[in-house]
């Protein structure tokens, strides 16, 4: 065939191209990539709606409950002892029993310093933990989106019906490097982001409402 090599009903190879040189475009939708992008957008939306500070506080609370902390145990013991010493000092006369009162006062002062040091150490540990969680959230949301855009910039998530949209729209949907007539990863990320925004908002509102109802029922006073 001199003018062209017909590959299928839709695609015609350029003039002068041999059958061995022409590689037809696979128009099958990339289901795995499509679902991965949708999941990443959904995950990022949930994280955004819950809020990074709330997630950090929740995970810190879980960690401190699951993993025994010597500092927390020491602080609790020091606080209990401080209350006990403060009570004894209050019940001791500084005039009639000055030696005992002074001893209790020195011990109470040492306990206050110890508790403050433990609190400072816990604050530093909590700040480091929050930094780790913040980095993990960034990498798994914004970082993951950037990775998908770069790694699969030439991939076609799925193909649009032929001649269904004008050229400018096809160009935008295929931006930046996907084949013309297809939907690129960048475009699919934006589409999923817009579509899931409302879905996640409704879902989070329902969850918060259910939690609020459960809490209100839990503390609801019993009537005789």
From TrEMBL:
Signal peptide: none
Cytoplasmic side, ranges: 200-224
Transport in keyword set: yes
GO BP annotation list: tail-anchored membrane protein insertion into ER membrane; vesicle-mediated transport
Chain's role: Required for the post-translational delivery of tail-anchored (TA) proteins to the endoplasmic reticulum. Together with GET2, acts as a membrane receptor for soluble GET3, which recognizes and selectively binds the transmembrane domain of TA proteins in the cytosol. The GET complex cooperates with the HDEL receptor ERD2 to mediate the ATP-dependent retrieval of resident ER proteins that contain a C-terminal H-D-E-L retention signal from the Golgi to the ER.
Subunit and interaction comment: Component of the Golgi to ER traffic (GET) complex, which is composed of GET1, GET2 and GET3. Within the complex, GET1 and GET2 form a heterotetramer which is stabilized by phosphatidylinositol binding and which binds to the GET3 homodimer.
Protein name per UniProt: Golgi to ER traffic protein 1
Source organism of this protein record: Yarrowia lipolytica (Candida lipolytica)
């Amino acid at each position: 065939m001199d003018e062209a090599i017909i590959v299928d009903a839709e695609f015609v190879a350029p003039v002068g191209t041999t059958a061995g040189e022409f590689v037809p475009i696979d128009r099958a939708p990339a289901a795995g990539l499509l679902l991965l992008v949708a999941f990443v957008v959904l995950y990022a939306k949930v994280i955004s709606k819950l809020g990074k500070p709330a997630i950090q506080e929740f995970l810190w609370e879980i960690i401190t409950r699951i993993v025994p902390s010597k500092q927390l145990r020491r602080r609790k013991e020091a606080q209990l002892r401080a209350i006990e010493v403060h009570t004894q000092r209050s019940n001791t006369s500084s005039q009639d029993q000055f030696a005992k009162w002074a001893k209790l006062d020195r011990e109470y002062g040492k306990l206050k310093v110890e508790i403050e040091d433990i609190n400072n150490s816990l604050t530093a540990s909590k700040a480091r933990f929050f930094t780790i969680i913040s980095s993990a959230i960034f990498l798994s949301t914004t970082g993951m989106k950037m990775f998908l855009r770069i790694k699969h910039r030439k991939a076609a998530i799925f193909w649009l019906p032929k001649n269904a949209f004008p050229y400018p729209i096809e160009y935008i949907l295929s931006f930046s490097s996907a084949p013309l007539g297809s939907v690129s990863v960048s475009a699919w990320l934006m589409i999923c982001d817009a579509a899931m925004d409302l879905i996640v908002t409704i879902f989070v509102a329902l969850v918060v409402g259910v939690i609020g109802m459960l809490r209100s029922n839990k503390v609801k006073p019993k009537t005789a």
